Amino acid sequence: MLKMLTFFQGLPGQQPVSGAPDFPRSAQKLPSTSEAESEASMSEASSEDLVPSLEAEVATDRDEEEAGKKKKKSKGLATMISVFTKGRKKKGQPSLSETEGESESSPRPPAQLPTVEELKADLERGRCRRPRAGRASEEELVRRQSKVEALYALLRDQVLGQLRRPLEAEPERLRQALAVLAEQERQDHAGGGGGPPGARAGDHAAPGWLQLWRDGVAQAAAERLSRRPAADAEGRTEAERTFLHMGRTMKEDLEAVVERLKPLFPADIRVVAAYDESYHAEFASQLSALTQFELCQRDTYMLLLWVQNLYPNDILNSPKLAPELQGVRLGTLLPPTQIRLLEATFLSNEVASVRELTARALELESNRWTNDEAPQRLDGHCHSELAIDIIQHTPPCSIITLDLGAQIKPLLLEELARFLRSYQRAFDGFLERCRQLRNYRANVIANINNCLLSGKGAGTSLEQQWQTPPDLRSSLLRPLNELKSHGFDTLLQSLFGDLKPLFKRFTQTRWAAPQQTLEEIVSAVAERMPEFSELQDCFREELLEAVHLHLVKEYIARLCKRRLVLKTAEQQQQLAGHVQANAQLIQQFCTQSGSPATWLHDALPTLAEIIRLQDPSAIKIEVATYATLYPDFSKGHLSAILAIKGNLSSSDAKSIRSILDINTGAHEPSKALFSLIKVG
């Protein structure tokens, strides 16, 4: 018991009983038991109860062995008091020897609490020793035992009082308190209980000091985490502020325990585990209480985020805490059944929210079209917020857990597909009914630009957002591709209408001046190019590819009209020269304008070569090569081209056509050319 008193040298006074630290990082300190409560717990015995006349202290009729034990324990307490008061003599205070003779003549007032010095003086004068003769009443023994218990409680309060504010205590004083705690824990295990010296074997065992310290830690955790967080200016809900407060408080407190208390505490006390278990239990209790109420969608999401992600990863697995918590079994903050219920609620809420928000966004956008509102301009392009809304309203939820993200992904993809189909129908209706509106073409362009959702040229697209397999992505984005195609058709309809009579001039003049005709066609297209400048660059290129395709397709269609038959090689070579020159002009213009359609570069020059050649075998080679480049080049198209060669025999023409019966091994074309050209 000597260790239990050594650290009391120079203590300023009694401390309340508790075991939890205050953490200076926090704006508030941990609540502590008031001094009045501590004194009240000691005031049950008066001064006379605590320090009765020791000459009257006698043994009962118990055997001499029990009496001997009491004598030894009284001496032990005297030694502990000696350590307890060592060095506490104040200026002007009489020494212990001076007060020995004065104690009997100067009794304390009954209401005054005995000081530690007075208790020590009584013990040193032998008042706790059993006299050699005489008998003490049972009442007197009870009073003496009460005095010992009061002194024991004082010691306990002082020890646990130091541990109450461990971060504020001097390291040496804290080590002394911990040594006393360890000594008392050893005695508790040896004696079977946490009672004071002299307690009878049959007395009810009080909680051990170590358990009292752990209870104090749990109380501090409850007080720290249950404080109401202050309102902030960031618009967080009360539940969000509570989660943030509890998480930040727990992390900061536990890191303080690791950095400042662990080096001082004995390893067998497991100070980090004790604090972590208490804070974890309180965190779990707070969340369990929260789930008893009906939570909004935002709070359900935040609760799952904390339970499944932030708490285990950012707090327990933080760099400072993870090594200290290995082997500490905490479990989850909520039972698995409760987590599954919350996840099911979250998934249902998320799907319903996405459906509602996307439907509302589409309704607002379509109303702008029909009300002839001009779209926004952003960096010189027609812009709509619809694409941004859709990406924002369909987030994957792997940020909670990968498993939950995997569960919600197919549900939200289904909602996304539903929305895109609705979007396409709304846009097609606008194309049909609103042609006369002033901002019609601008809104068409804005909606084509919305197809950045499909991923082409987009910084943040659905393709990047969802990372879907190619087959599923193709099916999902089909409505957007249709919308874009219909938009291109609308924008190009008037241009292609203007070009139609110019292309007819090739056959009407029997190719008399093809170069001049084509120059007029190219000039007409160039004049209309500024109309498409507000398209996003990727879609402007795609539209120019459509223009390029239209020029080549219509030119070939005029060659296939069977209205031109050239019987001499010279005539055929002259026409081939015109076709070759026209092909070069088309390619140059479209490439300079921004068309990426390099796959069209060989379409006209190879046909010109077929027209120029006279040797059937050489023609067969060109046809075979052409069929590999354009697998939709059919016998009908070949027959129309060969019809131009009036000097080619029918047998040679048949032999040349048979080349297309041979499987060239070419795959189906990804882009159509000849399948778009009808032959008579």
UniProtKB/TrEMBL annotation:
GO terms for molecular function: SNARE binding. Residues 32-45 have a biased composition (Low complexity). GO terms for cellular component: exocyst. InterPro entries: EXOC3/Sec6, EXOC3/Sec6_C. It holds the Pfam family Sec6. The keyword rRNA processing does not apply. One of its GO terms (biological process) is exocytosis. It comes from the Eukaryota. Keywords: Angiogenesis, Developmental protein, Differentiation. Residues 9-115 are annotated as: Disordered. May play a role as a mediator of inflammation and angiogenesis. Belongs to the SEC6 family. This is Tumor necrosis factor alpha-induced protein 2. It comes from Bos mutus grunniens (Wild yak).
